[in-house]
Amino acid sequence: MLIKNFDELATSKLRKDALLIVEEGLKAIDTEKVLSKQISLEGSILTIRNQKLDLNKFRKIFIIGVGKTSCAAGKVLEEVLQDKISGGIILDTKPGDLKRIECVVGSHPLPSQTNVDATAKIVARLKSLTKDDLVLAVISGGGSSLLCNPYKLSCDEKAMIERSLTKGGADILETNIVRKHLSEIKGGWFAVHAYPATIVSLIFSDVPNDDLSEIASGPTVLDKTTVEDAQKIMTKYDVLKLCKLPHCELNETPKDLKYFAKVTNILMMNNKLALEAMKKQAQSLGFKGKIYDNFLQGQAKDVGRKLINGLQTNQVLIAGGETTVKVGGIGTGGRNQEFVLAAIPFLKKNQVIVSVASDGVDNRTEFAGAIADTDSKFKSKKLGLKIESYLENNDSFSFFKEMGDGVETGPLNSNVSDLILALNK
Questions:
Q1: Mind listing the pLDDT tens digit for each residue in 167-181?
Q2: The pTM is what?
Q3: Are 66 and 91 in contact (CB under 8 A)?
Q4: CB contact at 8 A, 135 and 200
Q5: Domains of the chain by range and CATH?
């Protein structure tokens, strides 16, 4: 089981069913298993989904990866290509057992000097390439934070800006627009540095509508946003005042099409795999399974109530997405835990709600997310835990730690946004 504390959490038939549904969703998006079915090599012809490449046309092949699935994907590429790989570097949040590719473990969600140094190595490698070289890029969620090559800012100043956006309640798309214009590698700059080499980018989506320019802030994708767009967002959230920075010079993303003429971006995975697997499992357990939304958005404290209110008898509503937490307190938590905590007062008899991060980590806590049912209201009162107080302090982790309802998986080889379900008997 990927849910390590499954037995401890499955204290009722309905909770067990809910956890079984989530478990199937997590199993369906294992990067190594999915990628192994999508990549093959016959002679010199490399097939990646429907894209075919004759490797004899290239002088050298390099693997460059960023994001939470990049080491797992790198392992598959090593198994397929073996000694055809000339080298590479991957920047991930966890280590990988790679032989031909260097795997660097960076910090997330805020960058560190390790991230800066690894990004500098990636840029140097890209700039060394020729027109006869091939880059197989692995791009996945988490890459926006891991890649750190700030434009006329220190890494600490960039981190201050990102913290201010998060505290102000900026959603992931707004944050990524600003990130692109604070960077010299995101928003298409990766492609500029690699020019005139050929790039084939394997992309794992964790964003709405699978917009490739938003995933990891689109390092290999032509960006349509502008400095003016980023400036409006920073003004909206009063970022410079909150950061106490005197100024912030923004960098325009590259618009010249020549840098993207030899770039192919391939969507390898999104959350639909997980959601369909969850729906199928719900139906096998006798429920009417329905995909409510593949990218649920909004304030975490508000969205759960809407989901619960939409439940019908004997139904499971399934969703993917990333809700937003406006940070005003000093507690510890994550959007998945806050989502479930805020939903508890609205749960009716025989209802269960679960939300987990598909990468297994909900904002640097030891939980992937949380589970709650109707009894959670009574149990919390018995323990003297005031839900409203924990919400005001953004302290959902402490609440679920006391309740024993945090979902534990450890870091997983996937990242396709959060997985959410509401169940009604």
A1: 888 888 899 899 999
A2: 0.92
A3: yes
A4: yes
A5: 6-29+274-424 (3.40.1480.10), 31-269 (3.40.50.10180)
